[in-house]
Amino acid sequence: MKRLTTCAAILAGMTTFATVASAATYDIDWTGSGGYALTGSLSFSDALLGTGVITASDIDNLTITVLRDGVSLGARNYLTDGAGSHAGTFNLNFDTSTGQFVTGGFSGGVEGQTWFTSTGGLRCDTVGFASGSVSQGVCVDNALLGRIGVDDSTLTATAALAVVPLPAGAVLLMSALGALGLARRRRRHA
Question: Which of 35, 62, 77, 98 is buried deepest, with most CB atoms within 10 A?
Answer without folding.
Answer: 62
